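example protein:
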Amino acid sequence: ANGSNFNDFVVARYIFSNGQLALDTTFGSNSDGYVVTDVGGSKKPDIINAIALQPSTGDVIVAGETSRATNENSGNLEGVVARYTSSGALDTSFGTGGFVITPQQSHNVGNYLSGVAVTSAGNIVAVGASGDHSEVVTLGASGTGVTTTYLSLGSSSDFLNAVAVNPANGEYLVVGQANNDMVLAELTTGGAVDASSNFGQN
């Protein structure tokens, strides 16, 4: 499970016990089944929007948003990807101190990440929005090699909510909204719309 505890990231793991869901007390540093992480600093909003697993290690990948700015508003939001070990510890070998912060497209245009997936090679793709346009972030398994692509899928505004890896070709299937309509698209592994694909309307 994932979410936010007032201002911080919260990641929890549940197991079935006597036919009911219960917190897995082997997860987290305090044997309580969850871990709380402050990303942006005291009283700064940190929100997890999506979660995925790295199959080879069982590590937990989360994506969401944070604000490290003094003046908190939507224009100060930044996308963030973080990794936790399978035992529930923030993996400080990932990115910088356990986090990868995605840059704002321009001044006072906030961004956020709302979907995340892991490829068979362990690489990570996250999607969301920056201002009025869709955002696709790809990065290596260790949080390096970050590439951010901004897409205009509609004539006015658009954003992406979720992403999955197409097992047939390794490309990315994304879903979101453009011009107040649902949009479903296939992206190359570089984050661009695959105009050569026979998928939908390109």
